[in-house]
Amino acid sequence: MRVTMILPALTEATSPLFRPVKYSLFPPLGLATLAGYLRDDDEVRILDEHVERIDTRVADDRPDLVVIQVYITSARRGYELADRYRERGVFVALGGLHVTSLPDEAAAHADAIFLGPGEDTWPRFLDDFRAGEPASRYVSTERTLKGLPPIRRDLIKRERYLVPNSIVVSRGCPHHCDFCYKDAFFTGGRSFYTQLVDDALAEIERLPGRHLYFLDDHLFGNRRFAEALFDGMAGMGRVWQAASTVDAILAPGLLEKAVAAGMRSVFVGFETINEANLTEQRKRQNVGRSYEAVTRRVHDAGAMINASFVFGMDGDGPDVFDRTVDWAVATGLETATFHIMTPYPGTALFRRMDAADRIVHRDWDLYDTRHVVHRPRGMSAEQLEAGYWRAYRNFYTWPAIWRGAAGKPGGDRLRHLAYAGGWKKFEPVWDALIRSGQVLRALPLLEAALNRFHRR
Ligand code: B12
Ligand code: SF4
């Protein structure tokens, strides 16, 4: 059987003028996971439009099966590709987060759609498809990562990614924040589960080189699993990055084990510095926690923080941008990502906004967390968008980077400057590397910035 698997990209990622490095960070792990279920004699390829051109006009591209993973921002392009293949009589399967949120919308462009994670439904479909009796809709209910076939990393064009060693050892998260995709995606079964520790360690052993990036929503979410994983990784000589929550960082012991096992930077969802917003968004794990204590703990342990903030919640006024950036710089956060609050279909936030008639349009292309798609309460949509861009600019000026780094001891200060500056101040260099298909060459620099100045 001939199978083509596609990760379509949003327009920005395919621009001939400038491609932000974030689109060349991670390979399509979800598709490589699904490819693991195919047989040895199946012919399969993975196309990632973020790093390569997909030309569907080539008339002889007629595989037996096309699989497309659909995110909200790539839905339009995903459907367009699906339609082209179907016009040619090719069977098209659509799955992923957006398909799960809006199955009827996706079904109009597919022969079969998949709701939720694919580990149970996909092998079932493959049997049905080979038997010539595929159903049109598969809904995931059995959630386990036990006995997964190895991920087909051989199908990934490693040299096109800065971080080819991305890895996921769990699915979902134990929390239930209103704005998050998670509850919608995992409806109908468990919404947080992990691999067996030994399987996760074996997957890590298989990855070449030194650097790893855990894409798990919350790597610290199951304490017993995380402790065993970090213990197993100690001594492997890995340097890695991951995501955690405020409360898990404050819990004694776990952070230290992570750093001892090689964690050098952690993504933390602070989301907002307005306490009222946290309650409204059911971000309970952040309520009443001292963000200063979180940053101090991470820095004292020897790691860096990549903080995530969301603007435009109901408690936010026009002052929120400068207050957030001032706080982030004063606390010495190394990197930050800012977002405009975006109600994804399927989330509690979307239902709440829709019921109050506060969703202004359903142009999914613009649901990219950089455009205002709802009616904000404490400011105008224009103020919100302008403030969002200002926050990015102000946080990543050299004086701000310097101020953030200045209060740190020598090695940590250098690391802060190299890491924050490297991401945001050398964009033309990233662009050139991406264009030449050689972005992986910069990985030693990333490893050095993460680890070289680390002295603890
Ligand atoms: C890595 C990542 C990225 C990477 C690359 C994405 C990639 N290569 O896959 C980068 C940095 C480019 C990125 C960018 C963005 N991202 Co992003 N990203 C992620 C992240 C952290 C991990 C994805 C991952 O690898 N998961 C692990 C694999 C194993 O799971 P999976 O990919 O979901 O695949 C499984 C299932 O979905 C399913 N499946 C998927 N497709 C199909 C198809 C079929 C046929 C079947 C059977 C099953 C199936 O089976 C797979 C195995 O279980 C997720 C968060 C998350 N936890 O998923 C956010 C996430 C996907 N990103 C998100 C967003 C919003 C963005 C941005 C818009 C952010 C921005 N402001 O720029 C951009 C634009 C993305 C785009 N191109 O359209 C949202 C998506 C919301 C939505 N409703 O679609 C998420 C969920 C983050 C969040 N919490 O809100 N992202
Ligand atoms: S902690 Fe993060 S991943 Fe978990 S539900 Fe909240 S936003 Fe989603």
Mean pLDDT, all residues: 93
- By secondary-structure content and strand pairing, the structural class works out as alpha/beta
Which ligands accompany this protein? cobalamin, iron/sulfur cluster
Number of domains: 2
- What is the alpha-carbon Rg in Å? 22 Å
Tell me the number of strands. Answer: 14
Which sheet architecture does the biggest sheet show?
Answer: 6 strands, parallel
Amount of beta strand? 15-25%
Going across the major beta sheet, what is the strand order?
Answer: 2-1-3-4-5-6
> What is the level-2 CATH architecture name of the largest domain?
Alpha-Beta Horseshoe
Question: Could you walk me through the main structural features you see in this protein, from its secondary elements to its overall organization?
Answer:
The protein has 456 residues and is of the alpha/beta class. The protein folds into 2 domains: 2-139, Rossmann fold; 162-451, tm_1862 like domain (pyruvate-formate lyase- activating enzyme, Alpha-Beta Horseshoe), CATH 3.80.30.20. 38% of the residues lie in helices and 15% in strands. The strands form 3 sheets. A 6-stranded parallel beta sheet has the order 2-1-3-4-5-6, sandwiched between helices. The model has no long low-confidence stretch (mean pLDDT 93). The structure holds cobalamin and iron/sulfur cluster. Iron/sulfur cluster (SF4) is lined by residues 173, 175-177, 180, 182, 217-218, 245, 269. Pfam families: B12-binding, Radical_SAM. Residues 159-377 form the Radical SAM core domain. One of its GO terms (molecular function) is metal ion binding. Residues 13-136 form the B12-binding domain.
